[in-house]
Amino acid sequence: MDILTVFGDNVRHYRLQRHMSQEKFAERCGLHRTYISAVERHKRSISLNNIQKIADALGIDTYLLFVEPDRRPVRLRRHTIRE
Question: Tell me: the pLDDT tens digits for 24-43?
Answer without folding.
Answer: 999 999 999 999 999 999 99
